[in-house]
Amino acid sequence: MLVGRQSKIIAFVALATLMGIANTADAAQCGSTATGFEAWKRQFATEARGRGASTTAVAALMGATYATATIAADRGQRSFRLSLDQFLAKRGGPTITARGRALKQSQAALFASLEQRYGVPPGPLLAIWGMETAFGTQRGNQNTLSAVATLAYDCRRSAFFTEQLYATLTLIDRGILSAGTRGSMHGEIGQTQFLPKSILNYGTGGDLNNAADALASTANFLKAHGWRAGAGYQPGEPNFSAIQAWNAAPVYQRAIALIGRQIDGPEGPSARR
């Protein structure tokens, strides 16, 4: 019979194994159809309470519905597989450039102040604004909490959107979002489409549906991801990695860099190839 230190080790391993099984059993399990969503919500609500979510936030979560449209959009992002030229044509690249140049002139004071504070020139900010919401005209009408909860439940990217869901509940607790807040299909919010976790980490405290506030938060995001004032932002240049942090799709990244350069013109830091 084993005694002493060996028996203690075996007992510890057995206890750890049992705890792991219990935690697995208690954790909210992802799914791929609407069938298990209500049960998942109840499990997730228990976890959220354990992490300090308020009664208000949990009640909001329990009112969330399975967002079929969000799942369809998540499965149908075919434009990110296009060539750069095809992507620009589909997303209205020339229109974004033309409108961006006009806004750069008409809102010169705003963009000068943003560049002074964050080091980010107008081009990439206007490119992101135009690409994300057509300069605020297409911000979406999907319930944000339902969209994020659905994607946290869905097995495809459950870990990523679980973090977004906890951020959403925190923002509801703080009164920044509500159960009725609306945005785009994946839970993006405002003029430049911030995800909830990015609001917590990089939001500058304004209203993301206000263009100036949203652009300030966007510039802050880029600065926080290594943007260097005066450096280039084309592929291979120092600031391109900050654009990559904004969106993971390579064709989107290249489109933002190109449109930004076209808006900034020959005087911009990234006008050169």
Automatic annotation (TrEMBL):
Key word Signal present: yes
Keywords in alphabetical order: Signal
Gene3D superfamilies: 1.10.530.10, Bacterial muramidase
Transglycosylase SLT domain location: 37-233
UniProt-recorded name of the protein: Membrane-bound lytic murein transglycosylase B
Keyword Signal assigned: yes
PANTHER family reported in the protein's UniProt record: LYTIC MUREIN TRANSGLYCOSYLASE, MEMBRANE-BOUND LYTIC MUREIN TRANSGLYCOSYLASE B
